[in-house]
Amino acid sequence: MTELQVRKMCFAFADYDVPFLWNEQNPAFSAMANAVSILAIGFEKMIVQMIREAKPRITDPVVAEEADAFVRQEGQHSTAHRQHVNALVRAHPGLRETVDEVIAEFDALTANTSLEYRLAYTADLEATFTPVFKLMLDNEATLFAPGDDRVASLFIWHFVEEVEHRSSALIIFDSVVGSDLYRMRMAPSIFRHVLRMVRIASQGFNDHVPLADRKVDAMAMFATYRHRRRLGRRLPRLGTPDQGPLSRAFDDLSLREQLVALSGIVRSQLPGHDPTHEKLPALADVWFRRYDAGYDVSQWYTADLTTSK
């Protein structure tokens, strides 16, 4: 029996304006997280359709139950991120074009690639989430705490649930496809696609969100882009327009922690990888305990602990 819980959350994004720069102390992380919100809508829509297509090929009832809980969790994530992104679009209507482009790209994956490829896509990408989100959650005091509590709480909830279902996508892939070699062979094209989606979102931020609202060049996470920007200072015709400071989301985190996360990402793509044994962020256990105790996790930093049921 699966241990996954489906938790319905509401973050009150319609109650008052949601700032693009939701963590003023780290504008680059604000932009990166906003890009994750956009990608989550398209990716999780693809997952829902993929699981529906895969179900007839899942013969193990335990795997079928895992797949059902997994897709229901992902559906909740998609709904919450759509509410966040809709709030960003209300403030910056041009972003609707960017959101639609990212969703269309994931729709094209559903229409034009095999079920096996999409299962590999999901398994490969989800396998990277535990080391990446551990890096973020282990540094929540600087990445999340200073920001808008609704946005911070959305991402903390999403990331701890990704840790909770860290093995689900691989379990489903192994049941239907069962080839580590295929998964590894597809990985380069999968991560090229992921980076292209992040690039579309980031370029959309530069195009449609004024620098006064974002404070950084949202494309700064891409090394080749940073190189062109710097080249442009010497050779303007070869560079790109100045879109703001070239700050990156993790510039203030220790190099050791970033290298540990990177090694976890590499390990996640190797044959026989089992996410069950990954080191988990301590914050995840705290979050699950508080949720079970009745704490309002939709207001992670501002809810009163004394009001827990």
Features:
309 residues, mainly alpha, 12 helices, 65% helix
Task: Explain what you see.
It is a single chain. The protein is mostly helical and 309 residues long. It is 65% helix and 0% strand. The chain has helices spanning 27-54, 61-91, 95-112, 115-137, 140-143, 149-164, 168-176, 180-208, 211-214, 223-234, 255-268, 282-293. Helix 4 packs across helix 6 (149-164) and helix 4 (115-137) runs antiparallel to helix 11 (255-268). The longest helix is centred in the N-terminal third of the chain and has 31 residues, at 61-91. The protein starts with 26 loop residues before the first helix and ends in a 16-residue tail after the last helix. The model has no long low-confidence stretch (mean pLDDT 93).
What shape does the CA trace take?
globular
Order of helices and strands: HHHHHHHHHHHH
List low-confidence stretches.
Answer: none
Structural class computed from helices and strand pairing: mainly alpha
Number of DSSP-assigned strands: 0
Main sheet properties: none
What is the tally of helical segments? 12
Q: Radius of gyration from the CA trace?
A: 19 Å
Task: Spell out the blueprint of helices and strands.
Elements: H1 27-54, H2 61-91, H3 95-112, H4 115-137, H5 140-143, H6 149-164, H7 168-176, H8 180-208, H9 211-214, H10 223-234, H11 255-268, H12 282-293
Helix pairs in contact: 1-2, 1-3, 1-4, 1-8, 2-6, 2-7, 3-8, 4-6, 4-7, 4-8, 4-11, 6-12
